[in-house]
Amino acid sequence: MLEFVGSEEPSGVVGVPDISAEWYLDVAGLGAGSPGVVRVAGAIATEAVAGVFAVVFVVLWWRARRGSAAGVARAVLAPVVTVLAYAVSEVIKDLWQEDRPCRVFGEVATIVACPEFGDWSFPSNHATIAGAAAVAILWSSLPLGCLAFGAALLTAGSRMFVGVHYPHDVLAGLLIGVAIAAVLPLSARAVTPVIARLRAHPGGAVLLGRGPQGLPWDDAPTITLPRAQG
Fold first, then answer.
1. How far is CA 81 from CA 46, 90, 155, 201, in A?
2. What is the DSSP letter of 153?
3. To bridge 27 with a disulfide, which of 7, 134, 160, 200 should be the other Cys (CB 3.0-4.6 Å)?
């Protein structure tokens, strides 16, 4: 059971649902009281998952180079919408300015150090990035997308486990990320003609590939040669 200073119960924190405060104390307390190897793994995992998403983005781009321009557009835009989701979460943080639970409850034992004042809690940037990345990956690959969703949930949970976020912070982050990445197909459709044109040039073909059968564009016209007479 975690001990904290400043309030006798988790309820009563301004702007924080009682159940969210209670769950935070339970999960963060579980993390702080876990064996050392688990605490180390939690501290590493909460930061390392973002690197996993970056690796998957590279894999999607490399695989898409052999496919259609539409596929390349989705792969190229995946990290773009993820960064956009992060930027949106940062704006919301500055507007909302919810203090970190590890500071609100006083001397709470946490796996990682409590972020400095001004590094606001709502929404969770990590969860936002994870939610956006998972959906963006899903648009390109169902198997990798399903794995990415598992990693996103792990990321969100780890932020509570290490003691730096309320449950509603990570839930909001996931939803923001998912909502922003949901527009990726529409954006990809608009970008596809540009990708197709770039692939027609040597420099563009190096980065974006030439597509099926080495063609630099999608749906290349079928040319029918006339039969020789006589």
1. 21, 14, 18, 26
2. H
3. 160
Geometric angle at alpha carbon 26, from 97 and 132, rounded to 5°: 50
| pTM summary value | 0.83
Evaluate whether 199 touches 76 at the Cβ level (below 8 Å): no
> Which pairs from 39-46 meet CB under 8 Å and 24+ separation?
39/111, 42/111, 42/158, 42/161, 42/162, 43/111, 43/112, 43/162, 45/154, 45/155, 45/158, 46/112, 46/126, 46/155, 46/158, 46/159, 46/161, 46/162
Beta carbons of 61 and 76 less than 8 angstroms apart: yes
- Amino acid identity, residue 31? G
What angle (nearest 5°) sits at the alpha carbon of residue 53, between those of residues 50 and 59? 150
In a 13 Å sphere around the CA of 204, the CA atoms on its Cβ side amount to 17
Q: Within 10 A of 119 (CB to CB), how many other CB atoms are there?
A: 13
The angle at the Cα of 58, spanning 55 to 59, to the nearest 5 degrees, equals: 90
**Residue 116 buriedness (CB in 10 A; 0-12 / 13-18 / 19+):** exposed
